[in-house]
Design brief:
It holds the Pfam family Abhydrolase_1. This is AB hydrolase-1 domain-containing protein. It comes from Flavisolibacter tropicus. The protein is α/β, with parallel strands linked by helices. The two termini are about 25 Å apart. Strand 3, helix 1 and strand 4 form a beta-alpha-beta unit. The model has no long low-confidence stretch (mean pLDDT about 95).
Length: about 290
């Protein structure tokens, strides 16, 4: 169910609700570039999201970040500002405490809201997400996705133009594996679900413009505005050893710096495969905290 919430400054915050409202609410922060529709990706692999949520007794609140999907662009937006926006939405929805689940680029946002609103966020679960800024050493170790972020930082106009062209085109097939830089375990899922993936993530993120997505891509180079060591809640971090999109350094940052880190390493899983293959297990873990 797609909805929008009007923030005090007049901006719209888009969100989608999944599951039964009487169940435990859980925030969901999507990857980048992506949207509130991201959980529907599971349907492309014959996984019934509503059934998984029913079993786990969870109610997902998936939110578009500024400039993506139904949410208004915020030129001053960052991780902390978004946390404040979400806090207002939860007040509106009558949610006083809940866990947060994030995939990939949603990682810093989940950590930011946990840090700034510790009474609101009971626990954090991150599926192969960013947890540290893109310093030079981090960027050099990234796979081919580093070129997307480099374009965002150094030639944002070029990336915006390219993404605005792509969002208007019909995606018929996936690019060759060597271009994506994905390991086979991820490429197989990517290739088979390319039409759904493109529609629910990049195309929906850029439904009005690529400005929000590019602004966000640049933000990962900035200081996140908090220290991992200051986060008090349990942080569950899921990472697959075959992941070439989010490197191991992000998992190690959580393992070494977060006081209550719980690591879930999965052998031979990739960035997409761990999301598809472990989502039921992730929801089950969320329902226990």
């Amino acid at each position: 169910m797609n909805q929008t919430f009007t923030l005090p400054d007049g901006r719209q915050l888009g969100y989608c609700l999944y599951g039964e409202p009487e169940n435990q609410p859980c925030l969901y922060f999507h990857g980048t570039p992506s949207s509130r529709l991201e959980p529907q990706l599971l349907g492309a692999y014959n996984i019934d999201l509503n059934l998984l949520l029913y079993k786990a007794e969870l109610f997902l609140i998936a939110i578009d970040r500024p400039g993506m999907g139904l949410s208004t662009f915020n030129p001053k937006g960052d991780f902390i500002n978004f946390a404040a926006d979400v806090q207002l939405l939860l007040q509106h929805l009558g949610v006083s405490s809940c866990p947060v689940l994030a995939w990939s680029g949603g990682g810093p946002y989940a950590l930011a809201i946990a840090h700034h609103y510790p009474r609101l966020i009971s626990s954090v679960s991150i599926v192969c997400g960013f947890t540290r800024p893109f310093a030079k050493g981090v960027l050099q170790l990234m796979g081919k996705n580093k070129w997307y972020f480099r374009l965002a930082k150094y030639t944002p106009w070029m990336l915006k133009k390219g993404m605005n062209i792509i969002r208007k085109q019909r995606v018929r097939k996936a690019p060759p594996q060597w271009i994506t830089g994905l390991p086979y375990v991820d490429y197989a899922y990517f290739k088979n679900g390319i039409r759904v993936i493109s529609q629910l993530t990049l195309k929906e993120a850029c439904r009005n413009s690529a400005e929000g997505a590019v602004h966000e891509a640049r933000s990962y180079f900035n200081d996140f505005g908090f220290a991992l060591s200051d986060i008090q809640q349990p942080v569950h971090y899921w990472w697959g050893t075959a992941d070439m999109t989010v490197i191991r350094l992000h998992a190690e940052a959580v393992e070494q710096q977060v006081q209550n880190a719980v690591m879930h390493y999965r052998d031979k899983e990739g960035h997409v495969s761990i999301y598809v293959n472990c989502f039921e297990e992730i929801l089950a873990q969320l329902s226990r905290v």
